[in-house]
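Reopening this one. Same input as before:
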Amino acid sequence: NYTLDTSTTLYAQWAQSLPEILSQSADTSIKAGNDIAYFVNASGAELTYQWQRNGSNITGATDSVYYIDTVTRNDSANYLCIVSNSAGSDTSDTILLNVISVVAVSSWLNHTMILMTDGTLWATGRNNLGQLGDGTTTDRYSPVNVMSNVSSVSAGGYHSMIIKTDGTLWATGYNSYGQFGDGTTLDKSNPVWIRF
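Same output, byte for byte:
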C-alpha cells in the first residue's frame, strides 16, 4: 500500500541564463537634421534595456532600439546599452555618434562657401568664374562638395580662398588681377595650391 504525502511541495526551478549581446549598431557619422536608430540584439529571457549617453542613463531609453528623430551637433557622443535580467547583465561596445554640422559660412556677392565639422567644404550659388571650386562654371542651387581636410574658408567677390588642415593655402575663381598670388592672372574652376 502507498499513501500520498501532501505535506511536501516540489518546485521546478529553472536557472536563467545571462544575457548576451549578439549584434549591435556600429559607429556612425551623420549630417545634422537626419534621424538615427541604434539597436542591440541579445539572447536571454526577460530582458531589460538601458541606453546610456557618455556614461549616463538616458531617461525613457529602455528598449532594444534607441531612436533620435532629428540629430543635432549636441547629440555627438558615445552611446551604449546595458541588457539585464535576474541572472546579470551584458554591456554593448561603445557606439560613437559623430554629427556633422556647419562650423563656418563665408558669403560674398552671389556665392556661399560652407565648412562642415568633418572638414569638408561645400559651395552653392553663382559660379560663372569658377568661384565655387567644383571644377565647373555652372551655377549651383544646392551645395556641392568641393574638397576635404579644410580648416577655414573666405569667399571673395568672385573668388574663394581656402586653408586646408595641413596649413596650405588654396584659391579658386576669378584671378584677373592676380588676387590668388599664384604668379598668374588665370581664372581657375578647381582650387589651386598657392605656394609662396
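So the earlier flakiness isn't reproducible anymore. For the record, The longest strand covers residues 77-85.
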